[in-house]
Amino acid sequence: MESNSSTSSSPTYPKWRKVAYGGMQPGFADNHTDESFLEDMITNANVVKRDLVKVILDSFSISQYLCIVALVVLVWTYTLRSSFSETSLLLLDIVLLGVGFFVVLSTAEMLSFNLLLNYILKISFFITGLYLLSPIYQTLTRSISSDSIWALTASLVILHLFLHNYSDSSVKPPGALEDATFTNNISLNASIAASLLIASRLPSRLHVFAVVLFSLQVFLFAPLVTYLIKKFSFRLHLCFTAMLMVVTLFFVAQLHRLLFILLSSVVVFVNLVCPYWLIRIQGYKFEINGPWDEAKLCFNVTE
Fold it and tell me: What is the pLDDT of residues 99-111, one digit of tens each?
């Protein structure tokens, strides 16, 4: 008697292949990967290798603006102590305005006569309106105690420094239009509010006008002037920053020794400690890229 043996053979499936939108393939799980899965893996493709010296030089822009704000606070302090007269403050405003225009004319590109005339008209209207509003600013905080004014002013200056955009991407040459970010607006408004609070404690209308004009010139135009200097010559930018640090630390030392130690520590921390930390933590950065990443569509538009 002949026995028939039935042999069961497993079905054969085609080799697995990568299909973008083909759904599941027979015989393979939805999350199946073959031996070629990690062949296209790339590590640290977008990690920027930073140089310590370059990072230190770039951090000078932060210390530069810290010293500028420190000088503004020094002018406020000496004015409140009656060390600066009205004539001295007005002379300082004229010098700053002249230096600012000189830097813009010397370094800015594509500065036409019409654009320059437009700036002069706007600044004239701005100064006239500021002078007319000076009596209001002088009596703005008459019902508030001086201790509250000093505390609120210090808080606003710290808020301004904390939210200020120290990168060059936030500054554009004259004639360029760019929308300011939300944090930039808060930072600028905080500096203006601090200036008005200080001005409300001054004895005369002319004092108020001179101090507010000085503060607004610095907070509004100092980032543009320093940007143009840096763009014109990086070596000049470094020399200007070094000179600014020396002058600021000298006058702060004359005012109070503890403030001098505090500002010196901040400058050293920003220019040396922070760049060193940034270089050290770069060694711990690990980025993985591969075929599992989201696809990026590239269109070659030919005119």
Answer: 988 888 888 776 6
DSSP alpha helices (H): ranges in the chain?
52-58, 60-80, 86-107, 113-132, 134-138, 146-163, 182-199, 205-232, 234-255, 257-268, 274-282
DSSP assigned state of 145: -
Cβ neighbors of 41 (< 8 A, separation 6 or more) are: 288, 289, 290
Which residue type is seen at 38? L
- Would you state the pLDDT for residue 38? 65
- For 188-223, b where at least 16 C-beta lie within 10 A, e where not — what string? bebbbbbbbbbbbbbeeebbbbbbbbbbbbbbebbb
Q: How far is CA 271 from CA 56, 71, 134, 158, 261, in A?
A: 6, 19, 39, 19, 15
pTM of the model: 0.77
How many angstroms separate the Cα of 18 from the Cα of each of 260, 288, 291? 65, 20, 10
Residue 50, φ and ψ in degrees, nearest 5: -105, 145
Task: Read off the DSSP letter of residue 295.
Answer: P
Residue 168 DSSP class: G
